[in-house]
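[INFO] parsing input record for 2-aminomuconic semialdehyde dehydrogenase
[DEBUG] input buffer:
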Amino acid sequence: MAGTKALLTLENFINGKFVPCNSYLDSYDPSTGEVYCRVPNSGKEEIEAAVEAARAAFPGWSARSPQERSQVLHRLADLLEQSLEELAQAESRDQGKTITLARTMDIPRSVQNFRFFASSMLHHTSECTHMDHLGCLHYTVRAPVGIAGLISPWNLPLYLLTWKVAPAIATGNTVIAKPSELTSVTAWMMCKLLEKAGVPPGVVNIVFGTGPRVGEALVSHPEVPLISFTGSQPTAERITQLSAPHCKKLSLELGGKNPAIIFEDANLEECIPTTVRSSFANQGEICLCTSRIFVQKSIYSEFLEKFVQATRMWKVGVPSDPSASMGALISKAHLEKVRSYIKRARSEGAQILCGEGVDTLSLPPRNRAGYFMLPTVIADIKDESCCMKEEIFGPVTCVVPFESEEEVIQRANSVKYGLAATVWSNNVGRIHRVAKKLQSGLVWTNCWLIRELNLPFGGMKSSGVGREGAKDSYEFFTEVKTITIKH
Ligand SMILES: NC(=O)C1=CN([C@@H]2O[C@H](COP(=O)(O)OP(=O)(O)OC[C@H]3O[C@@H](n4cnc5c(N)ncnc54)[C@H](O)[C@@H]3O)[C@@H](O)[C@H]2O)C=CC1
Ligand SMILES: N/C(=C\C=C\C(=O)O)C(=O)O
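[DEBUG] output buffer:
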């Protein structure tokens, strides 16, 4: 256990108050490998207190008009925006991501999540049908589900937490959120803004700690009828098992093994920098990151040469350096896991073209124990290799050639995941054909990660269950009832 004197110490936020915990976990600065923060190691007791608060707050909050709730969400968005720089600094330190990404993506998107749902929730209509021959009118009404359990991961901490909190409270639910124990700081900072925004006590409760201890207590609680989870597939399996006896509503946003398909008519000037970004943004720690690049044979050599050259320009640096493109990975264990994939690829006879074990990483002395690695490109690798099948979730991407459209669709679909694909071509007909045949919840063509929050977001196969977005989140966070009136 590190000395606790200078450490930032977080507290749970229950019923509008910060509450200390009996025990704490060490949280590491990924750029130095040093403990810098203590996170509550909560369990059943804290979940009971949060459920009590959320239960008590539900009647009042759910009875407010959508317009009143919308105003609260707008105020919270404004307050987050006013704290953008402070939040970005904290996110970058806690997660290891670059300050530039935190400033330009994580925190602005967190603000947008509240603004978006504050507005979109005002525009839903309900269904109505008539059976004139029976003298009946049928219509639907929607009501909040109750206490929503929200579990979020460490890769985009505030971004993904707010993507769940915003629609949950906009629709009138009260929430208990459990951020990742590895990245809890910005969630705790957001709690400081809730009262000023007008969020009543008990509407948003945040309980920190590990998955097996506090996460499972939340998922198993009989008074929490809904769980929205983003994270790994094994954890989703466990959540599904624990929820089954209670028939909980589940939304599961899981991993990917996302293909980029690059046809010979692609505009390489745009494709190469975008594919470097889609492979290595946030250290490759985004479920939407590209990790299998299929390139048509006629342009394979040209692509590979230019892609490796562009990857080598991607600067790995201290997260606080505004010129860095990539920071540190989340943890030592994760860095070792990512490196183990590269070792496996090498032992299978694949070529490591740049990055880990090939190029030299230069870091200031203070950061040498940090969890850094260079963006790594692998070629000459078989589709059956674990590097082509499993989610690595790090700055590693594989490049392989293909000959025909049919062949590449079959190979792109040959993994258990189905989250996000990118297709690069100037042939509109081909783009439509290929996009339709890919087993993927999202297909970006000639671009990556352009988000339209109105439309469904989520994956198929092992990439998840359910979708979130304007209409989908509204439906998920509410229960529908069909009413028949005979007149
Ligand atoms: N969005 C995504 O697709 C993400 C995928 N991953 C994948 O998962 C791998 C492992 O990362 P982890 O942090 O271990 O992910 P994880 O799935 O274990 O963690 C995600 C969240 O679930 C919680 N959790 C863990 N076990 C739980 C349980 N039994 N009951 C309830 N909640 C639980 C965690 O505390 C965290 O808040 C990564 O290497 C990556 O491949 C990780 C994070 C995000
Ligand atoms: N769920 C993840 C990313 C979502 C991005 C978005 O909604 O724009 C992830 O990386 O886990």
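[INFO] The pocket of NAI (ligand 1) is lined by residues 151-155, 178, 180-181, 210-212, 215-216, 219, 230-232, 235, 238-239, 254-255, 287, 334, 391, 393 (CB under 6 Å).
[INFO] shutting down worker
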